[in-house]
Amino acid sequence: MDASNLNQLKQFIEQCKSNPSILNDPSLSFFRDYIQSLGAKLPPSADSHGDSKSRSFVVEESDEEMDGEKGNAGDEVEEEEEEIVESDIELEGEIVEPDNDPSQKMGDASVEVTEESRDASQTAKAKAMEAISEGNFEEAIESLTEAILLNPTSAIMYGTRASVYIKMKKPNAAIRDANAALEINPDSAKGYKSRGMARAMLGQWEEAVKDLHVASKLDYDDEIKAVLKKVEPNAHRIDEHRRKYERLHKEREERKIERERQRRRAEAQAAYEKAKKQEQSSSSRPGGMPGGFPGGMPGGFPGGMPGGFPGGMPGGFPGGMPAGMSGGMPGGMPGGFPGGMPGGVPGNVDFSKILNDPEMMAAFSDPEVMAALQDVMKNPANLEKHQANPKVAPIIAKMMNKFAGPK
Fold first, then answer.
1. Spatial CA neighbour of 282 closest among 368, 200, 383
2. What is the DSSP string of 133-194?
3. What is the pLDDT of residue 163?
4. How many angstroms separate the CA atoms of 165 and 138, rounded?
5. Looking at residue 90, what is its pLDDT?
6. Fewer CB within 10 Å: N-end or C-end of the chain?
7. Which letter does DSSP use for residue 342 in this model?
8. Which of 299, 392, 398, 285 is nearest to 343 (CA)?
9. Last residue of a domain, one of 235, 257, 284
10. CATH number at residue 395
11. Is residue 272 part of a domain?
12. DSSP per residue over 259-327, as a string?
């Protein structure tokens, strides 16, 4: 090496010492590779180019992973959809505190009611009605209780006492008497009216509306109309509120089902893509069925195979049999063995034995066997699902053995 070249080299080395980042120049990549091959370790400033590549790669990978994590997190957030919190309903009208007094005396329905008892019951009722007109409700309750005990089969007596309990703002007691009246007479208008009014007092708006509508049909009066006017708006609001949230809950459940369906579909798609990549990866390796029958059949079979395989082999065996199999096989073998037959079929395979093999020729005329062979040709990975078929498995094994040649 002449002196001028040595001087230039020395100057270059001095520049590298003073400024190692010079080595980042892409045109000097050959020099970096050389000195590293000798075991030299570049200073960080000189190796920043390589580091940047590494960092760039890592960032890209981590970004992708982060995106995936974000996506998964988003899915979790979506799956963990907030619970539906029902809003309050704005209702109108006053309600009373439920009365928790001991149950009032009720009549014994098994007692035989005589004419004298009925007359005495009517006398007690008349006394009660006088007390009601005077606003003396406690006395009215006592007289009506006496009338009920004398004639426990009278729905009117229970209905009348229930109406007095309404005036006393004792809805639970009124409901007990109204139920007793309706048990005796299911068409008791007084029973439905008293129970409807009592339920309205307790804020049982929808139940109240039902009872009041029945009472109105049985024996309409203005008092029922006035109560319905106050009660129905609340019942409508409650009904609309319930329908709204039933719809929201149903829609939420449908979204949940749809997310689950999409998740399963995504998992199935991912599994399919993974299997496809594995199949493609294995098909690029020498040997084995996944990539086809090793090596192809270069040179083909000039002149075809005597006797022919009617129908030919459209799609053929990619990678081999360029001369084709003239005449064809019944039904053909469309699709071929993907990837051809890399690795070659030994030249000493006597294909006339295949053509003269009665078992194989009979199998080739069987639609079930041909369908299985076509399925395997389209996707060699499908071979496994046909292994249990006693008609197909022996033929595939026999073909593979014949193509495999001598051990």
1. 383
2. HTT-HHHHHHHHHHHHHH-TT-HHHHHHHHHHHHHTT-HHHHHHHHHHHHHH-TT-HHHHHH
3. 95
4. 9
5. 67
6. C
7. B
8. 285
9. 235
10. 1.10.260
11. no
12. HHHHHHHHHHHHHHHHHHHHHHHHHTSSSSSTT-STB--TT--TT--TT--TT--TT--TTS-TT--TT
Summarize the confidence of residues 46-55 as an average pLDDT: 43
Residue 104, sorted as left (phi over 0), alpha (psi -120 to 50) or beta, turns out to be beta
Number of domains in the chain: 2
- Cα atoms in the 13 Å half-sphere on the side-chain side of 317: 25
Query: Binning pLDDT at 50, 70 and 90, where does residue 23 land?
Result: confident
CATH number (domain holding residue 183): 1.25.40.10
Amino acid of residue 58? V
pTM: 0.45
Residue 209: predicted pLDDT: 94
DSSP 3-state percent helix, strand, coil across the chain (nearest 5)? 65, 0, 35
Residue type, 331: G
Stretch (H or E) spanning 206: helix 205-218
Last residue of a domain, one of 174, 207, 235: 235
User: What are 25's two structure tokens?
Assistant: 């120049």
- Assigned domain for 370 exists: yes
Specify if 313 maps to a domain. no
Is there a contact between 326 and 349 (Cβ–Cβ < 8 Å)?
no
Distance, C-alpha 162 to centroid of its chain = 53
For tokens 């109204």, name the residue.
178
Q: Which domain holds residue 389?
A: 356-404
Sole residue written with tokens 């595939």: 396
pLDDT, tens digit, 9 for 90 and up, residues 341-396: 333 344 455 566 666 777 777 777 888 888 888 888 788 888 887 888 887 888 87
Instruction: Choose between 353 and 271: higher pLDDT.
Output: 271
Please check whether residue 371 lies inside any domain of the structure. Answer: yes
Tokens 């929808």, residue? Answer: 206
